[in-house]
Design goal:
Elements: H1 2-15, H2 34-44, H3 64-76, H4 83-95, H5 97-102, E1 117-133, H6 136-139, E2 155-173, E3 176-187, E4 195-206, E5 211-222, E6 228-240, E7 244-252, E8 257-262, E9 272-277, E10 288-298, E11 302-312, H7 316-324, H8 332-338, E12 345-353, E13 358-367, E14 375-383, E15 393-402, E16 421-433, E17 436-447, E18 457-465
Antiparallel strand pairs: 1-2, 1-18, 2-3, 3-4, 4-5, 5-6, 6-7, 7-10, 8-9, 10-11, 11-12, 12-13, 13-14, 14-15, 15-16, 16-17, 17-18
Helix pairs in contact: 1-3, 2-3, 2-4, 3-4, 7-8
Length: about 475
């Protein structure tokens, strides 16, 4: 019923129906009032549009009913705002509760917030492929009928798949919401039904204006996403605003895994890779991450950040043995030394706007105790892509350089390998319609760290948000 009231009210605002204002013709909210300034702040941030013509006429008096209508619009979008904006909206709702009740929006005893339910989601069609890829480790030592070794064949590999996700969010009270997300995906033509899973389950609570806590299976981005941008089972506490904020995260990272590439060599032609998960079957054997992050703005156009991640439960020697070829790959003396070292890693990132459409960014990360573990990327983008706005677009060029033991596990960046890899990469995005985006990506002249050729990777996708 609450959502029905809000929907009717929003429709009334769009149609410009203002008969409700006649009930109180006096302009009794002035530009000096805190409520006026609060609504002006929300309007500048795009949370409310002001009058039916989409403007907020600053520096003129407003009736309480006009103000209440704007607050009602903000309530409709309350699940999309940050902790500070949410606190402002709640205070405005309490201040104008009588007017909101008259407009059909109940706020007494928080009735407008308890039991609110909303779902959002997205769908994606994706095509990926490689220039050439050969599973050399499986065919090199297999002789033919004459006893000669079989030469591995260079083959092209491609995949066309689809994915759909629906997220359900229920408002528990004015500061708390519970979220569940269902995901289904499948390769076109593959046997069976789509793989389905509930991949996000968490509760989020706001403690005042600048402190938010999230617990459960939720998304976590370490730094700007070079090392990890995926799910975490645990808790996150974030304090502050965009201008300066700090976050502390603790939990288990299911996508903590290595994916190291091996380029074409004389003995093993073609491209191959090795992948292993550091996420153990038994909880007691799993790595626990303790992440400390600090992000802030320098002026209006420069964003800086840094992080430190403490890793408990996985030995450095195990990770290095894998990257170099499996258990026993290291000399005994080196293994004993690494057994005393940690897998803690840290990093820094920066992003700057150079004008209205040009953005440069970069990130660096490495293991604290392990050599040959530098990971860095730098890029420049042009455009103003916004998937919600048809016709917007952007193009980006980027360089990625990941050492043999780079601390990269599930990256924001779309390149296919996480260790022993360097490449130029280009991407482009275009909003073909509101909430419909087309994207294309490709590596260029990819190599491993020894300079051996690695098959170039390409990807195209069509995304829908609803």
């Amino acid at each position: 019923m609450m959502k029905k009231h809000l929907a009717v009210l929003a429709a009334t605002a769009v149609l410009g129906v203002t008969s409700a204002f006649a009930a109180n013709p006096f302009s009794d909210v002035t530009p000096q009032d805190w409520a006026y300034q609060a609504v002006a702040q929300l309007a500048s941030q795009g949370i409310v549009n002001g009058y039916p013509d989409g403007t907020f006429k600053g520096q003129q008096n407003i009736t309480r009913y006009e103000m209440a209508q704007m607050v009602a619009k903000a309530l409709v979008h309350q699940d999309r705002v940050d902790a500070e904006q949410n606190a402002i909206i709640n205070r405005l709702a309490n201040e104008f509760s009588a007017e909101l009740n008259n407009l059909g929006v109940r706020v007494a005893a928080l009735e407008n917030k308890v039991g609110n339910f909303k779902f959002t989601g997205d769908a994606r069609l994706k095509f990926t492929g490689t220039e050439k890829e050969t599973n050399t480790f499986e065919v090199l030592d297999k002789p033919n009928a004459d006893g000669e070794l079989i030469e591995p064949k260079t083959v092209k590999k491609s995949k066309f798949d689809y994915r759909g996700r629906v997220q359900f969010a229920a408002t528990v009270n004015e500061n708390t919401k519970a979220v569940v997300r269902l995901t289904a995906s499948k390769e076109f033509g593959a046997a069976g039904n789509p793989e389905t899973a509930i991949d996000r389950v968490y509760v989020q609570h706001n403690f005042g204006k600048q402190l938010t806590a999230t617990a459960g299976r939720h998304d976590v981005t370490i730094g700007a996403g070079l090392t990890y941008d995926d799910v975490l089972e645990g808790a996150t506490v974030m304090a502050g605003k965009d201008s300066l904020n700090v976050a502390v995260v603790y939990g288990y990272a299911p996508e903590l895994k290595y994916n190291a590439v091996v380029g074409s060599t004389k003995d093993k032609p073609g491209t191959d890779f090795k992948e292993i998960s550091l996420y153990a079957d038994n909880q007691k054997d799993n790595a626990q991450l303790a992440i400390f992050q600090l992000n802030g703005m320098v002026g209006k156009n420069v964003k800086l950040g840094g992080f430190y991640t403490k890793v408990n439960g996985v030995k450095a020697v195990d990770a290095v043995n894998f990257a170099l070829g499996g258990e026993g790959a290291l000399p005994e003396k080196v293994s004993k030394d690494l057994a005393k070292k940690s897998l803690d890693f840290y990093g820094f990132n920066a992003k700057a706007m150079l004008g209205s459409k040009v953005t440069v960014d970069g990130e660096f990360a490495k293991f604290k105790d392990i050599k040959h573990s530098n990971a860095w990327t730098a890029g420049i983008a042009y455009g103003d892509y916004n998937m919600k706005k048809q016709g917007t677009w952007m193009v980006k060029a980027q360089y990625v350089n990941l050492d043999t033991l780079a601390p990269v596990f599930s990256s924001t960046f779309w390149t296919p390998y996480n260790q022993n890899f360097k490449t130029w990469a280009v991407s482009s995005k275009y909003a073909v319609a509101n909430n419909v985006g087309l994207a294309a990506y490709s590596t260029i002249n990819a190599k491993d760290k020894d300079g051996n050729s690695v098959a170039d990777y390409y990807r195209a996708e069509l995304n829908y948000n609803f």
